[in-house]
Amino acid sequence: MSGIDKTYIDGKEYPLYRQWWIDNYDKMVKELGEPIWLYTFSSFYEECDFDITPEFLKDHTKDLEDYKNAYDFAIWNTSDKQDMWLVKNCPFESFRNRMLTVHNHGWKGFKGHKWVPKKNNKPKYVR
After folding, report:
1. Cα 27–29–92 angle (5° rounding)?
2. What is the separation of C-alpha 125 from the centre of its chain, rounded to a whole number of angstroms?
3. Which helix (H) or strand (E) holds 8?
4. Are 16 and 92 in contact (CB under 8 A)?
């Protein structure tokens, strides 16, 4: 499935997402087959013609400077499969809130996650 929608964040959140990406890189590659691309990595197009890795990011911080004052920019555009993985692994409230607006409460990716609000099941008939 192609990308569902983009997730938007601001510059204050970006260092958190970036560090989370670095910390979860190996798990992403192992479980998804490839890392989720952060759009902000386009800052490095002129610097490298290879895959961006956690090792590269530890020494290259141009993206942090480029996006520190940005507001409401796309961080990634993910498929349904990636969304399910992110719902399981990404702890950020801004991401979770975005998933709650993109997917309905019955979406299979939400199954078993305690942070997903319960659907309000009111009785059909009340005396």
Report:
1. 55
2. 41
3. strand 5-9
4. yes
Do 18 and 52 touch, CB atoms closer than 8 A?
no
Match 């890189």 to its residue by tokens. Answer: 25
Quote the CA–CA distance of 12 and 54 in Å, as a whole number. 20
Parts of the chain with a pLDDT under 70: 1-4, 45, 47-50, 120-127
Exposure class string for 51-82: b at 16+ Cβ within 10 A, else e: ebeeeebeeeeebeebbeeeeeeebbebebeb
Find residue 76's DSSP bridge partners: 7
What 32-35 contacts at long range (C-beta under 8 Å, 24+ apart), as own/partner pairs, is 32/81, 32/82, 32/85
What are the structure tokens assigned to 73, written together? Answer: 């920019």
SS3 of 67-102: the string is HCCCCCEEEEEECHHHHHHHHHHCCCHHHHHHHHHH
pLDDT in tens, 44-72: 867 666 678 899 888 888 888 888 888 88
